[in-house]
Amino acid sequence: MMQNRISSFPPIIDAHSEILILGSIPGVKSLEKQQYYAHPQNKFWKIIFELVSEPFTEDYTQRIQTIKKYHIALWDVIDSCERKGSLDSEIRNEEANQIAELLEQHPNIKAIFCNGGKSYKNVQKLLGKDYKLPIFLLPSTSPLHTVSFEKKLEDWKRILEFLV
Asked: What is the pTM of this model?
């Protein structure tokens, strides 16, 4: 079966961003909707809203406003790849996003959080293990990562140390 070449979204980042959360590359549902973490079973947005004690919303524009309010930036480590379905294990022929350049352009970023193992491994390859910023591995918010919401939320609380 022919695999489709897919591309990531532009970063959501501004001059006030202090935390960068990196995924691998958008899944099928996210690509369809052209939204980060659009799959209804993905816990990313629920976790973020829980962490910042804001009322949860399905409205994507409000979601983006909320992460910007808390100085959180979003991007993916992979710029483009071939993949059938949404599994990171199906990713082939990947091209990396320019993470180092993004960080140089946004000197206020003080920590990088990786949403899952693929993102973490790729970032370490791109930036090196001794990069000047702390890089944290967080459990994937994907429904395919079958850890309980409570456990994911507990691990994601590391972000709170860096929130303003």
From this structure: 0.96
What are the structure tokens assigned to 42, written together? Answer: 């993905």
pLDDT tens-digit map of 64-108: 999 999 999 999 999 999 998 888 889 999 999 999 999 999 999
Task: Report residue 73 as tokens.
Answer: 């930036």
Span 4-161: which CATH code?
3.40.470.10
2: pLDDT strictly greater than 80: no
Question: Which residue, 159, 20, 30, is CA-closest to 101?
Answer: 20
Q: Which of 147, 157, 136, 162 is nearest to 53 (CA)?
A: 157
| Mean pLDDT for the stretch of residues 29-48 | 96
Q: State the pLDDT confidence band at 164, using cuts at 50, 70 and 90.
A: low
Residue 74 neighbours by CB under 8 Å, 6+ apart:
11, 12, 13, 20, 21, 22, 23, 36, 67
State the catalytic residue, choosing from 42, 97, 115, 122.
42
Half-sphere exposure of 90 (CA within 13 A, CB side): 16
Judge whether 42 counts as a catalytic residue.
Answer: yes
Q: Please, how many CA atoms are within 13 Å of residue 131, restricted to the half-sphere of its CB?
A: 20
